Amino acid sequence: MTAAHADLRIDRPRVTDGAALWRIARDSKVLDLNSSYSYLLWCRDFAATSAVARAGNGEAVGFVTGYVRPDRPDTLLVWQVAVDAAYRGRGLAAALLDGLVARLVAERALTTLETTISPDNSASQRLFASFAERHGAGLEREVLFDAGLFPDGPHEPEVLHRIGPLSPARRHRTP
């Protein structure tokens, strides 16, 4: 980690992190909040394709959750990225994303990163655009889920951001 993150470490999530991930997502006031149960399951079943940032005391203070798409084993779909308010503004989301992708490129021959972002989430749009730039990868966007597909009230469309190709040989600049 960089000097700005010297007091933090990036790790795989554990089931005991589920409550902290749920709290961080809830407090973001931007992410769609899933049930607390889903964060526990995520930390159990998708720990290998997710990452947490831990403070010196071991507490989770940021996370990236993702999964490898079953029909595209070279593609990581990033589900959520969030950082505790006390740790924002230090490039931690970018460090988490870079660390997770570097690990998966090496372990699984990952070539593509996907995520969906609603049009009003400019912070996530900047995060993923800067990721693509740092990694010298292309970025394509298209609406994946139109607003009318969501049954639970008004919801913005979810725009798919596809970044690739990713390569272990490509070097990137640290944020």
Structure, explained:
The protein is built from 4 helices and 7 strands, in the order βααβββαβαββ. By secondary structure, it is α+β, with helices and mostly antiparallel strands. The chain has a 7-stranded mixed beta sheet. β3 and β4 form a beta hairpin. The C terminus is likely disordered.
Question: In summary, what is this structure?
Answer:
The chain is 29% helix and 29% strand. It is of the alpha+beta class. α1 crosses α2 (36-45) and α3 (92-108) packs across α4 (122-134).
If you average the pLDDT, what whole number results?
Answer: 92
The fraction of residues assigned to DSSP E strands is 25-35%
The major pleated sheet works out as: 7 strands, mixed
The general outline is globular
Portion in helices? 25-40%
| Assembly state | single chain
- Counting helices, strands and paired strands, the structural category is alpha+beta
Q: Uncertain segments of ≥5 residues (pLDDT<50)? A: 170-175
Count of β-strands: 7
Secondary-structure element string: EHHEEEHEHEE
Distance between the termini: 10 Å
Rg result? 15 Å
Number of helices: 4
Strand adjacency order, main sheet:
1-2-3-4-5-7-6
Give a quick set of tags describing it.
4 helices; 7-stranded mixed beta sheet; 175 residues; 29% helix; disordered C terminus; globular; alpha+beta
Helix and strand topology:
Elements: E1 9-11, H1 18-28, H2 36-45, E2 51-54, E3 60-69, E4 72-83, H3 92-108, E5 112-117, H4 122-134, E6 138-145, E7 158-164
Parallel strand pairs: 4-5
Antiparallel strand pairs: 1-2, 2-3, 3-4, 5-7, 6-7
Helix pairs in contact: 1-2, 3-4
